[in-house]
């Protein structure tokens, strides 16, 4: 009886140890990504209700060291006159010299979650002939939305990431000095009338339209939520019915959904930038059986003239110019390279082995596409 009890205790200890090991292993397996190419949902998609609203305003930058508007544009002098009159200063517009003042457009992006008192970064851009905004201060500028209502007020010292100095004969400049920013320069005065937690349906807009990826997202979202709440409306739009337990409190739901890992299935694509000779080949690019040979034929013609003239103190003779032509023909002897079902790495290795430069690669890819051997979309930008 004692031996039986001891054996039972030993078995229980081993079973407890096994459960403890599983408790340590299972969380690690659940937290591990499905693959090396997995991406979080919030990195490849956007959610409805989370957007920015553009704001714009017209203002004046003062305190410039003679680098402001120089030709006295009407809009600059009119704005200066209105500003001074609002402060009780009567001026003659013809006497205004705005060389230390620049007319600017002020822009900002206000998230839908901004509330009165929130701060926004603003960008200030010259619209006149000011040569530099360095050292300027933006005066109080109302920022309006597309509906014409004022949503924020901007003001502050500019930060310009460059300089421009010179004289009559030479000028030295770095970056653009007619555009600057005011960090936290705008104060939100009115919020966008939108209540995020009052939504009963959510839309997930994928950055890339792909039916396979859309269905993968639907399945993963339903698995996380615990029911058939998500459905695909098209290749890039997914609709989610908010569960009853999250009604009026969407933040916990979104926090769990935005970190869901997805393995996006990108279409086969080759992007070519002819201006710079850049070629980007996607992962799923494939080739049919094809033979590739690439070489250049160079013909160089050089003309020279040999001059023949009589010896010194010769009684007869004349100077004669005899033309000489040198022709050199250089033809590269490139081998014919067979490619069949090549992957991305094999395609790159094969083209490198025949000495293809980026410019050559563009021609080869175009020819492969024309021959029907390149199974990918070829985009030239």
Q: Can you tell me the overall shape?
A: flat
Spatially, the strands of the biggest sheet line up as 3-4-5-10-7-6
Overall pLDDT score? 79
SS elements, strand count: 23
- Briefly note the structural class of the backbone: alpha+beta
Unreliable stretches covering 5 or more consecutive residues: 1-6, 10-36
Helix content: 10-25%
Beta-strand percent range: 25-35%
Number of helices: 7
Alpha-carbon distance between the termini?
Answer: 84 Å
Q: How much is the radius of gyration in Å? A: 36 Å
Can you tell me the number of structural domains?
3
Provide the succession of SSEs. Answer: HEHEEHEEEEEEEEHEEHEEEEEEEEHHEE
- Characterize the largest beta sheet: strand count, sense, and whether it forms a barrel: 6 strands, antiparallel, barrel
Please characterize this protein's 3D structure.
The chain has 381 residues and is of the alpha+beta class. The chain has a six-stranded antiparallel beta barrel with strand order 3-4-5-10-7-6. Strands 2-11-13-12 form a four-stranded antiparallel sheet. It is flat. The protein contains seven helices and 23 strands. The protein has three domains: 52-163 and 173-188, no CATH class; 195-262, 2-Layer Sandwich (Alpha-Beta Plaits); 269-308 and 320-380, no CATH class.
């Amino acid at each position: 009886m004692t031996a039986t009890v001891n054996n039972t205790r030993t078995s229980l200890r081993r079973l407890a140890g096994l459960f403890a090991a599983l408790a340590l292993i299972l969380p690690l397996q659940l937290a591990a990504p499905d693959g090396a190419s997995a991406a979080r949902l919030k990195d490849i998609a956007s959610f409805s209700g989370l957007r920015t609203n553009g704001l714009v305003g017209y203002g004046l930058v003062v305190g410039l060291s003679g680098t402001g508007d120089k030709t006295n544009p009407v809009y600059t002098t009119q704005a200066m006159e209105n500003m001074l009159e609002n402060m009780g200063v009567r001026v003659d517009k013809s006497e205004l010299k705005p060389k230390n003042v620049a007319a600017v457009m002020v822009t900002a992006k206000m998230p839908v979650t901004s509330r009165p008192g929130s701060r926004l970064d603003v960008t200030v851009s010259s619209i006149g002939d000011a040569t530099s905004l360095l050292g300027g201060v933006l005066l109080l500028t109302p920022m309006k939305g597309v509906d014409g209502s004022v949503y924020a007020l901007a003001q502050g010292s500019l930060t310009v990431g460059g300089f421009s100095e010179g004289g009559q004969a030479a000028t030295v400049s770095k970056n653009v000095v007619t555009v600057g920013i005011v960090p936290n320069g705008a104060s939100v005065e009115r919020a966008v009338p939108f209540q995020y937690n009052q939504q009963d349906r959510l839309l997930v807009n994928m950055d890339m339209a792909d039916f396979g990826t859309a269905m993968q997202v639907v399945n993963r979202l339903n698995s996380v939520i615990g029911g058939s709440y998500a459905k695909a409306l098209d290749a890039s739009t997914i609709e989610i019915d908010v569960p009853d337990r999250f009604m009026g409190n969407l933040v916990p739901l979104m926090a769990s959904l935005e970190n869901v890992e997805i393995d996006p299935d990108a279409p086969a694509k080759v992007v070519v930038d002819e201006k710079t000779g850049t070629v980007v080949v996607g992962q799923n690019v494939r080739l049919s059986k094809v033979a590739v040979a690439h070489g250049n034929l160079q013909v160089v013609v050089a003309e020279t003239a040999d001059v023949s003239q009589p010896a010194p103190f010769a009684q007869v003779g004349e100077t004669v110019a005899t033309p000489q032509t040198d022709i050199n023909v250089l033809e590269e002897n490139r081998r014919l390279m067979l490619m069949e079902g090549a992957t991305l790495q094999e395609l790159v290795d094969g083209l490198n082995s025949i000495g293809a430069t980026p410019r050559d690669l563009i021609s080869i890819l175009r020819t492969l596409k024309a021959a029907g051997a390149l199974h990918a979309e070829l985009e030239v930008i």
